[in-house]
């Protein structure tokens, strides 16, 4: 009987399992950062589950459910600082969690340093833009705007 052939691990030079020199990346001080990023993913995932299920419960199950969600519903919800903070925390954590996950995928699959660099630049720019715009929307949302000197009041706006 002959022994079954050994299948080498990807990106290795021999059956010893050592990474080929062309695939080695310098680790430097990234070890601590990667460990903290790993820990952040676990903790933010737990917090996100609570935030998202709370969000879904309030928006879909309380009151009239999905049929009550409209501009007035959001306006009334964001009139309360608690819900502003809730939605802000959900936005920030979801974006940071997702960005960290995509960063890990880029590190795993982009083999060239230049490709990895530019993919991360695009990722970080897009994430920063979404976080900034989302934060501005949450804190500058005015359901009762004044347009050309006329206050456009709805039933949820205070009397003028």
From TrEMBL:
InterPro entries in UniProt: SQR/QFR_C/D, SuccDH_FuR_B_TM-su
Localization in the cell: Membrane
Keywords: Heme, Iron, Membrane, Metal-binding, Transmembrane, Transmembrane helix
Signal sequence annotation: none
Transmembrane residue ranges: 39-62, 82-100, 121-141
SUPFAM superfamilies in alphabetical order: Fumarate reductase respiratory complex transmembrane subunits (SSF81343)
Name of the molecule in the record: Succinate dehydrogenase hydrophobic membrane anchor subunit
Lineage, top ranks: Bacteria, Bacillati, Actinomycetota, Actinomycetes, Micrococcales
